[in-house]
Write a structure and sequence with these properties.
By secondary structure, this protein is an alpha/beta fold. The chain has three domains: about 5-50, Transferase, Pyrimidine Nucleoside Phosphorylase, Chain C (Transferase, Pyrimidine Nucleoside Phosphorylase, Chain A, domain 3); about 80-330, Pyrimidine Nucleoside Phosphorylase, Chain A, domain 2 (3-Layer(aba) Sandwich), CATH 3.40.1030.10; about 335-420, Pyrimidine nucleoside phosphorylase-like, C-terminal domain (Aldehyde Oxidoreductase, domain 3, Alpha-Beta Complex). The chain has 17 helices and 13 strands. Strands 1-4-5-13 form a four-stranded mixed sheet, with helices on both faces. Strands 6-9-11-7 form a four-stranded antiparallel sheet, with helices on both faces. Strand 4, helix 10 and strand 5 form a beta-alpha-beta unit. The protein is globular, with a radius of gyration of 21 Å. InterPro entries: Glycosyl_Trfase_fam3, Glycosyl_Trfase_fam3_N_dom, Glycosyl_Trfase_fam3_N_dom_sf, Nuc_phospho_transferase, PYNP-like_C_sf, PYNP_C, Pyrmidine_PPas_bac/euk, Thymidine/pyrmidine_PPase. Belongs to the thymidine/pyrimidine-nucleoside phosphorylase family.
Length: about 425
């Protein structure tokens, strides 16, 4: 076994790492023989020097094998979706029960927020009683009974990735294509999936802001996943504005409940959710073509089947049994909720989506250190969309804050993130392209 510092030095100097070197380092990380500083140095070396395809596959498999690898015996395909992260991206909360309502089983291992993006796990942690880290036996039981379960990494599943994930968040290495690929796929391979659909974001709120960068990540994930035996497809989707009109934790859970129950279904959020769900049904052979997949998914929404499954999942994981029916009563509410007025009249031309995500962190809705607590109450709702026509003083959105000082600071950040002009912007499609 080589010393961790020797492995770090090789990658720092641009030399390829062997499968044995990578396995040694990941075993050391899991056993805590590799320090946090060494893990950070390794991540930075990979960030600057990159990994070959063979190294990516080796890193993915080593992190997968750092813990338990699940096997399922279920009466339907085991499917999942993963997003590279964005602002207002609460698709997972709607997608899992929709696919379950169509005959799939969705054991979703989700993460906490990274950088300026929100994390599915942080959103669900805002539901009183919801257990984001159940044991594997309970996880298996909920997937079987409800059809889906959205949880965080347990100590059993890809523990090496869980440690490296937290370090990446606070060391400026989140955007590494190699580390993103290995992080995502190690969890998904450990979950024992039969098919995976990737949602790779591009735009001002994405880690890979340019389309070509997002395309490269999508191709990397599809290539590595298929090489590791996991059938995978990817969609490039637009993140030039918050996907939902809510950004935060509890506010996004409320948004997902409104979507599932039909109280509100915004077109772009609906388009992305339906496209991802349809790809999952096709991968699982639950529909013959995209039209049939979309019809089944729409029926799952319209009949209330998807909302009922979401409520069942929440209850089975410790949340309120009447959560869907009474989410407003159960979700925590910020003490200060007030509109953020536009300073001038005009048409919303663009949104610096990353700045919106950073404003949520500034409110306490994200982390600047791995050990930070999150305030689930804070964020933004009813955000104006590109193309909206506003008068001076009309709201850009509502800020949800812990106190007036935080609200005013976040309001200023939100105003700075919006560009208001005289012309209607050219909107690009929510689905940019398909890969794989």
């Amino acid at each position: 076994m080589r010393l961790p510092q020797e492995i770090i030095r090789d990658k720092r100097d641009g030399r390829a790492l062997s499968e044995a070197d990578i396995a040694d380092f990941i075993r050391g990380l899991t056993a805590e023989r590799v320090t946090e500083g060494q893990a950070a140095a390794f991540a930075m070396a990979v960030f600057f020097r990159g990994l070959s395809l063979d190294e990516r596959v080796a890193l993915t498999r080593a992190m997968r094998d750092s813990g338990t690898v699940l096997a399922w015996d279920l009466p339907g395909p085991v499917l999942d979706k993963h997003s590279t992260g964005g602002v207002g991206d609460t698709v997972s909360l709607a997608l899992a029960p929709m696919v379950a309502a169509c005959g799939g089983f969705v054991p979703m291992i989700s993460g906490r927020g990274l950088g300026h993006t929100g994390g599915t796990l942080d959103k669900l942690a805002g539901i009183p009683g919801y257990d984001v880290a159940p044991g594997l036996d309970r996880f298996r039981a909920v997937v079987r009974e409800a059809g889906c379960a959205i949880i965080g990494q347990t100590g059993d599943l890809a523990p090496a990735d869980r440690r490296l994930y937290a370090i990446r968040d606070v060391t400026g290495t989140v955007e590494s294509l190699d580390l993103i690929t290995a992080s995502i796929l190690s969890k998904k391979l450990a979950a024992g999936l039969g098919g995976l659909v990737m949602d790779v974001k591009a735009g001002s709120g994405a880690f890979m802001a340019r389309d070509e960068e997002a395309r490269g990540l999508a191709q990397s994930i599809v290539t590595v996943a298929n090489a590791a035996g996991l059938p995978t497809r990817a969609l490039l989707t637009d993140m030039d504005a918050p996907l939902a009109s809510a950004a935060g934790n509890a506010v996004e859970v409320a948004y997902a409940v409104d979507y599932l129950t039909g109280r509100a279904r915004e077109p772009r959020f609906h388009a992305v959710t339906m496209a991802l769900c349809a790809e999952m049904l096709l991968l699982g052979r639950l529909a013959a073509d995209r039209a049939e997949a979309e019809a089944r998914l729409q029926a799952a929404l319209d009949t209330g089947a998807a909302a009922e499954i979401f409520g069942r999942m929440v209850g089975a994981l410790g949340g309120p049994s009447d959560f869907v029916e009474a989410s407003e009563r159960h979700l925590p509410r910020a003490p200060v909720v007030r509109p953020v007025a536009a300073e001038r009249a005009g048409i919303v031309g663009s949104v610096d989506t990353r700045a919106v995500g950073l404003a949520v962190i500034g409110l306490g809705g994200g982390r600047t250190r791995s050990q930070d607590d999150i305030d689930p109450r804070v964020g933004f709702s009813e955000l104006a969309r590109p193309g909206d026509r506003l008068g001076a003083g009309d709201p850009l959105g509502l800020v949800h804050a812990a106190d007036e000082t935080a609200a005013e600071r976040a309001a200023a950040a939100l105003r700075a993130a919006y560009r208001i002009g005289a012309t209607v912007p050219v909107a690009r499609e929510a689905i940019i392209e398909r890969v794989g």
